[in-house]
Every structure is written in structure tokens, then in C-alpha cells.
Amino acid sequence: MVPGGVSLKTVERLTVYRKVLSDLADKGTEYVFSHRLASLASVTPAQLRRDLASFGSFGNVARGYHVRELSETIGRLLGTDSVRNVILIGVGNLGKTLLTYRGFEERGFRIVAAFDRDSEKTDRTFAGRRIYRIDQLESALETLDAHIAILACGPSDLNELVSRLASAGVHHFLNFVPVLINRTPDIFVEDVDISAKLEKLSFIRTNGRAQDEQDE
Predict the structure, then answer these.
(1) Rounded distance, CA 97 to CA 110, Å?
(2) Alpha carbon of residue 8 to chain centroid
């Protein structure tokens, strides 16, 4: 659960709804009915209505949901209606790819700086962002106003690095490193394990589609 008693699964579905709504808005769609939105988001209409009802009343019977207004409302609920600064740890192949990806800014996130242990990569800019040395972490964070970090570095001393970041005010992590991070009450980690996703696809390829989880 997250603050307010809303489940993380609901939050995850909200991000899907917003993506679908953004796509509809780009195509010039002004209104969408719940059954259409639910179908595009791969949920049932009942699940969609339950999720949205957790936050208030939206749409009307005659015309459905106003696409842009609902997208903006969900953006406010997700806290991405204003840009959030993010830092990147690790400027290897993955890190460089993330720095050049512009989709983050479209969804309300801006990578403002990167950090790396390799002295040949630091004290310069890449894709318009300054790359700091790891030993500059605490001093740089005093001015960056960033509270989310993407971890795309090597696994060495990762938990020590996370502890330093938490002490400096960064408590939320998107983790691409195949290392289990020690969770504490003030640290939230979202792991991105690409190998695990491939294993899931392998299971489905071998055994057929797994049974879907029941709606909440």
C-alpha cells in the first residue's frame, strides 16, 4: 500500500490509463467511454471504475471521460503534473541510453545529472548533463533538488551507495542493477530485472499463458 490506502497495483494501472489517455489525446480524441478506455488498458470496465472511484467522480453518462482532463487529473495524482528531477548513477552503455531518451520528460521526469566511478567519464557533459564523480555525490545533491535516483551502475558496494543517497535526501530508486537492496522504512525501490521478464516470456512460450491474477 502507498500513503492514502491505495494499493501499488492501482498506482501501476493509473500509469497505464494515463499513457492510453495521452495516446488518445495525440490522436485528437476528446471523450472516451469507460469500456473503451478499459479495453485499451487491458482491464475490465469494473476495475477501471473502481480505480478511478478511489480518487473521486469522473466523467458523465452521456459523453464519458474528457480525455485531456482525466489525463491531467491522473498526472496530479501521480505527482507528475510538474517536472521531477532525477539523477542517474552509472554512465555505461545503459546509462548513456537513458540519458539520451527523451520520453522521460514527456512523462514529467528530467534527469538533471549523472554520477560515475570512472574518472575518464566524469567532470564533463553527456547529452547535456554534467557527469559528477561519485565522491561529489553529497555536495552535488545540495543544489540539484533531486529525490529520485536511477541505478544503472555496477553491483559493487551498491547498498553502501544507496545508504549515502538516502542520507543525502534521495529515498526513491529505480534499480536496474541485479542486486537486492536492503530496504528500510524510508527507502522505496522499484527493481527492473530484464532477465526476469525474459524468464516470464520463456515460461509463457513453453507452457502457455499463465493464469491472470484476480482483479482486486
Answers:
(1) 14
(2) 12
Q: Letter for the amino acid at 203?
A: F
If we measure between CA atoms, which residue out of 132, 69, 80 comes closest to residue 105?
A: 80
| Cα gap 168→180, rounded to integer Å | 21
Q: Report the pLDDT averaged over residues 154-168.
A: 95
Residue 148 is part of which domain span? 84-195
Buried b (16+ CB within 10 A) or exposed e, 2-29: eeeeeeeebeebbebbbebbbebbeeee
Pair (175, 93) in one structural domain = yes
Query: Is pLDDT above 50 for 1?
Result: no
Q: Is 187 within 8 Å of 166 (Cβ atoms)?
A: yes
> CB within 8 A of 29, min separation 6: which ones?
67
Cell readout for 170 is 534521495
For residue 60, what are the β-bridge partners?
Answer: 64
User: For residue 200, is pLDDT > 90?
Assistant: no
Return the bridge partners of 65, or none.
Answer: 32
Instruction: Locate 113 and state its grid cell.
Output: 545529472
Place of cell 507452457: 207
* Residue 129 falls in which region: left (phi positive, over 0), alpha (psi -120 to 50) or beta: beta
- Tell me the CATH number at 102: 3.40.50.720
Cell of residue 116, nine digits: 560515475
* Percent of residues, the chain, with pLDDT higher than 90: 72
